[in-house]
Design goal:
260 residues, Immunoglobulin-like, eight-stranded mixed β-sheet, 8 helices, 28% strand
Length: 260
């Protein structure tokens, strides 16, 4: 009984503490230290803050003031830049400040698909040699964790991070994506960003957009009714989930990210 009361009290204290904390400016989780931003185009940047909060953004010495809307969302576009770096990106709100000093500008590629794209470097031909040589500080990799949803999700539910390509980080990364990025980097001599989002065994409906799949309204309603009765957590734990129209939804938070 005492343990139950203690747990309840701790839960209440954590809730009160969380609600007491001042709102902080927060960029979307796809942005972070070691990221690559797409060269040659206005660079989209977005996130959340307190509704109406004024935010100061500085990139490559140039300021980009922006204000959060009534829902607490903000977005802006940084000026197009040529390949290079590392650069500093600062995002400052009323209650906090974020600073990244290892931001590069280059080419960003989305690497998506099923099991062939998912196949890790450690299972490729001659893996020990390939992993040992995977030392490319100007290739940066980002792996999207698996998530299931009946609707497009606006943000990743887990904290992701960009990483420089090293033997350690490349070991479990997509082999196809790695070889593709390595060859581009060697031929173009520009920083390369690789966003890996694949899921082996998913059916084709999971990669079709909502508006496209709803064109067949009757089948869509049947599949959605079937989906509502499924255990989403159990499906996510399966190696080859068969849920209709769900797998590709975890790609949604990165769709606005500047890329090739």
């Amino acid at each position: 009984m005492q343990n139950i009361m203690l747990k309840s009290l701790l839960t209440l204290l954590l809730f009160v503490y969380a609600t007491w904390l001042p709102a902080q400016v927060q960029p979307a989780r796809i942005f972070g230290e070691y990221m690559i931003l797409q060269r040659g185009i206005p660079i989209p940047l977005w996130g959340t803050a307190k509704p109406g909060e004024k935010i100061s953004i500085v990139f490559r010495g140039q300021p980009y003031p922006v204000q959060a809307d009534r829902a607490g969302a903000w977005q802006t576009k940084l000026a197009a830049a040529e390949a290079g770096g590392p650069y500093t990106l600062e995002i400052k709100g009323k209650n906090n400040q974020i600073r990244w000093d290892q931001v590069m500008v280059g080419d960003v590629w989305i690497c998506s698909g099923q099991s062939n794209m998912e196949w890790p470097l450690m299972r490729a031909n001659n893996p020990e040699e390939e992993i040992k040589n995977a030392q490319y500080p100007n290739i940066r990799i980002f792996t999207v964790k698996r998530d299931l949803s009946t609707q497009p999700i606006k943000e990743f539910t887990t904290v992701e991070s960009w990483q420089p390509c090293t033997p350690e980080s490349a070991r479990t990364f997509s082999a196809v994506a790695y070889f593709f990025g390595r060859d581009l980097h060697q031929h173009l001599n520009v920083p390369i960003g690789l966003i890996h989002t694949s899921w082996g065994g998913t059916n084709v409906e999971t990669w079709i957009s909502g508006p496209a799949i709803t064109q067949n309204a009757e089948e869509y309603r049947e599949k959605m009714a079937e989906l509502q009765s499924m255990d989403m957590k159990a499906l996510a734990e399966k190696k080859q989930p068969a849920a209709p129209g769900t797998g590709g939804r975890n790609s949604y938070p990165r769709t606005g990210y500047g890329r090739r």
